[in-house]
Amino acid sequence: MIKKFCLYFFYLVIFIFLGYWAIQISLINESIKKEYSSKASASNIVLNEYTKNGKLSKTLVADHVTYNGENKKSFYYDPKLSVWNLNSKELQKEWYMSSDVGILDNDGLLLLRKNVVLLGYDSQLKKITTNSLQYNTKNSNFYSSDFVKIYGQNFINSGTGVKGNFNNKTATILEDAKGTYEQNIN
Q: Membrane-spanning residues where (predicted)?
């Protein structure tokens, strides 16, 4: 009877031990799958976007990019985005954006963070600076709730928050707008 009890106890211990290790191996495999299948990274990236007609519309350059499949976002470090003028016969920049970090989701919303600078080449708006800015890559709308400074031809405006559209070449300061204007001397 004691031998039988010891034998059953031994089988029970072996069963528990094997079950424990099967669970541990499963958890390790799941962790490896998440780590390697949902994340990717690369350095010195250049991404080009073209219109249906094959014309270059945007170029994104970054020192480093990491993609996280779990939240479906790409993280760009030192991103620089050039938006090209589609109406020009020659390749000509219309807008240029840079920041320390950029986060792009699958819906085409680009969040630029830290030291955001926008340069306009074919517009009265020459430069916009802020700490963070959301840019919709599909409709060219942009928005920030942070302090913003807008430099234009013969003016400098500042305030809290901005919204606008790159295609329409508009930017509106949302609160506490202050401006300095100079007369154009010809």
A: 5-23
